[in-house]
Amino acid sequence: MAQLTLKNLGKSFDDTDVIRDLSLDVADGELVCLLGPSGSGKSTVLRMVGGFETPNRGAILIDGEDHTRVPPEKRPTGMVFQSHALWSHMSVAGNVAFGLKLRGLPKAQIRQKVQEALALVGLKGYGERRVWQLSGGQQQRVAIARALVLEPKILLLDEPFASLDQHLRERLREELRDIQRRLGITTLFVTHGQDEALALADRIVVLRGGEIEQVASPDRMYRGPQTRFVAGFIGSMNFLPCDMRGGVSDHPLFAVRAAVPDGPVELAIRPEALTLCPARGTGMRVHLVTDYGTHLLVDVDLPDGGRLKAMCPPSARYETGQEVAPEASHVALFRGDAKLAEVTLERRVAVHV
Amino acid sequence: MTDLASSGTRRTGGTAASNGRGLTGLLLVSAPVALLGWLIIYPIFNAIARTLVVQTETGTAFSVDTYVRFFSDGYALANLWLTLWVTAVCAALLLAICLPLALYLRFAKSRVAGVLQGLALFPMFVPSVILAYALIRTIGPNGGVDLVLNALGLPKINSPYLTPWGPIIGLVWDNIPLTTLMLVAGLGAVSDNAVEAARDAGARPLALLRHIIFPQIGNAMLVVLSFTVLSIFSAFTLPYVLGPASPEMMGPFMQRTFSQVMDTRMAVTQAVISFLICAVFGAFYVRSIAKNREARR
Ligand SMILES: Nc1ncnc2c1ncn2[C@@H]1O[C@H](COP(=O)(O)OP(=O)(O)O)[C@@H](O)[C@H]1O
Ligand SMILES: [Mg+2]
After folding, report:
1. What is the ipTM score, two decimals?
2. Which residue of B1, B200, B212, B296 is the best one to mutate when testing the A interface, meaning the one whose CB has the most A CBs within 10 A?
3. Of A307, B240, B246, B270, which is most buried with the most CB atoms under 10 A?
4. Closest ligand 1 atom to the C-alpha of A45?
5. Is the CB of A35 under 6 A from ligand 1?
6. Residue B19 pLDDT
7. Chain A, 203-262: which have a CB under 8 Å from a chain B CB?
8. A220 forms bridges with which residues in the sheet?
9. Eight-state DSSP code of residue B210
10. Strand runs (DSSP E) across chain B, as ranges?
11. Which of A15, A43, A194 best tests ligand 1's pocket when mutated (most atoms within 8 Å of CB)?
12. Looking at A228, A246, A264, which one is the last position of a domain?
């Protein structure tokens, strides 16, 4: 079992810094998600760990041993690519067996291991198929089996489910989570989908422009984002610009008290932290109600032209154009990119119609 | 790469609009098909017929006498063997030179690769006559190489001029661009991810070539081989200018039989034999493509 350490990693392509100064510890058996928008350097980090890119600065340690300059064929890492990585001239079993054959294992043992690996990913009996006869989801399962059969110390996955449809993606995500738990394999998973990261990770690392923005558990990442960027990137968030004056925000709807120096701030409120009460004369009207079955998402037009999203219980009824008064239970205050304060508010009224 | 024909959905509709489109399509296709028939299919059968039919006093008769003569003539056979041998050597040399080049062009990420790609294409724009002349001036007797060696006090080279190695050098040089292009195109079918996955599984460069890259470019190699055979059997200028006088390669041999010996039927027979050999390679190629497409269905 293995532990991974990235120490002050830096990488540039053509004199452009893609990864600036990245340090990260991944504990034994942990599943860490690298999350960030496209171009933030997630793949580059993963490829450096896999040995496909050499860092310009810093070190990569696996179980305390320096692997910074070890080529991929000698690294104890197994990589799953987004797509087009299976060898189409081999059968499914051939793909899985390839690495074992290179290691010169006896035939019977190879057959045994291949069968186990295919069973692990739910492809028992698919060994003789050609890879192009498989669906996209099955191909990615083969890729996972192929990486796992070599018993790597670290499993690396670069957006492995990105080209699959939503339904399949969620299923494979759960299966991967199960397999990872069962094997207890240290895993680095790259994704640009925050839902995937929230569902899978023990810990999420949010990358932005080649730097770590925040490292936290999914729960902490969602409920306590440390920067404006993370707050906006993970989940949905209402941002309301206003000014702080004498410890109170001057927003007409949300007068938030916080020990914050005077100046411009943004109030950040999750849709589920908002309650809508029917009211008259507020000037705030329901614009659109979307029924997701489990909840309603209500868009509210503000008098100043802004718009709020509020999550409401499915039993609630709102009409388009109906006047409402929103109330917030939890507000975070950002100035620029930095978080100044978090405030939990008491409900003044709790009336549901 | 060569799998150009689409295997799209078959049209089953019977509406007036789609019938109209079908007619237009048929008309569009008929022009090239007619050209193909007129310029290629008809001449082939015409040539074969002319070699098999002789004029006698009583009219026309079937005869394979020119073929018998060709295959019992030691000189003609020597020419055929020489051509086959040159073809084999050229194909081997071309693969030996162009494969590393194509691998480099496909997988190197440096800027040098771009420059090299341009350089590799350069011979395509040099006409064979000029190439032949340039080769005579450099590696011919008392050519550039000899002058340099002489200045250094070294013996002259054993010039390949007027030996089979003359046309071989010229033909290889001439065919480098197209061969490289075809191999690079073939290597395009091997995705970066597939190669990296193999390295990840522990494949060193040689294993990578053997187990991952070569099996996926078999088709491209077959195309290269077919093209080499075709272009060398039909080559005239380089064998004529640089090659030996006896035995000679099929191109000059046909030309001489036609215009100096003035045995038209024999010349056509030689052409038909050359064509049949090329057709065998063509058949290999077509079969491999058909098999590939079948497998993918
Ligand atoms: N081989 C490369 N050569 C040049 N630039 C690259 C290379 N690989 C990645 N980059 C650049 O590095 C940045 C980060 O890329 P990447 O790590 O692929 O981002 P992500 O996976 O987060 O979308 C991008 O701006 C990309 O253009
Ligand atoms: Mg990426």
Report:
1. 0.86
2. B200
3. B270
4. 17
5. no
6. 65
7. none
8. none
9. I
10. 53-56, 59-62
11. A43
12. A228
CA–centroid distance, residue A3 to ligand 2 (Å): 23
DSSP secondary structure letters along B32-53: HHHHHIIIIIHHHHHHHHHHHE
The C-alpha angle with vertex B107 and arms to B106 and B111, in degrees rounded to 5, equals 85
- Are A246 and A287 members of one domain? yes
- What spacing in Å lies between the alpha carbon of A18 and ligand 1's midpoint? 7
C-alpha dihedral sign at B278, B282, B285, B291: negative
What is the extent of the structural domain holding A77?
A: 4-228
Reduced to 3 states (helix: H, G, I; strand: E, B; else coil), residue B19 is: helix
What total number of domains does chain A contain? Answer: 2
Residue B96 CB-density burial (10 A; 0-12 exposed, 13-18 middle, 19+ buried): exposed
pLDDT on residue B42: 92
Q: Is A41 in the pocket of ligand 1 (CB under 6 A)?
A: yes
> Which of A13, A156, A158, A208 to probe ligand 1 with, by most ligand atoms within 8 A of CB?
A13
Q: What pLDDT, on the 0 to 100 scale, is given for residue B10?
A: 44
Do A261 and A210 share a structural domain? Answer: no
Closest atom, ligand 1, to C-alpha of A46: 17
Residue carrying structure tokens 């190695």: B165
* Residue B188 to chain A, least CA–CA distance (Å): 12
Ordered mean pLDDT values, 10 residues apiece, chain B (297 residues)? 42 54 85 90 91 86 91 94 93 93 88 83 86 89 88 87 91 91 90 94 94 89 83 87 89 92 92 91 82 69
CA B285–ligand 1 middle distance (angstroms): 40
